[in-house]
Design a protein that fits this description.
Shape: globular
Oligomer: single chain
Strand content: over 45%
């Protein structure tokens, strides 16, 4: 495994550091994470299928995607996208159908990657519409 060089104590210290960062009053942002659960039946009145989510109130650290990262992404990211560091203890595995509600803005997941220590997910999200 890529993290075999760490002792259990070192991994615990890193996990605690990430938890402290996400809990820091100056760094954290409170979010609602909407984990997709199912698509319901078609509603002829709206012309859509109702989607069902399980909502979780979590804290994360939010960073705007830099213009340089947007340029290097070759169209994957856009100006206005944000990266969220979310503890894996809060969200097991992100999916493309999940949503993040940041303040009053709902965002969809563009990409995500989990760190090799299984401590946090780095999630990039974009505003709907």
């Amino acid at each position: 495994m890529a993290t075999d060089f760490l002792t259990a104590v070192e991994k615990t210290l890193i996990t605690d550091d990430v938890a402290d960062l996400v809990a820091d009053a100056q760094m954290k942002v409170s979010l609602t994470y909407k984990a997709f659960t199912s698509i319901g039946t078609f509603d002829p009145a709206t012309g859509k299928k109702a989607e069902t989510y399980t909502n979780s109130s979590i804290n994360a650290v939010r960073f705007p995607i830099s213009e340089r990262e947007v340029e290097r992404s070759v169209g994957k990211y856009q100006v206005g996208d944000y990266r969220y560091l979310i503890q894996q203890a809060d969200i097991a595995t992100p999916t493309k159908s999940d949503r993040i509600v940041d303040g009053s803005i709902t965002k969809f997941l563009v990409s995500w990657i989990s760190d090799p220590l299984s401590i946090f997910h780095s999630v990039v999200a974009r505003s709907l519409g």
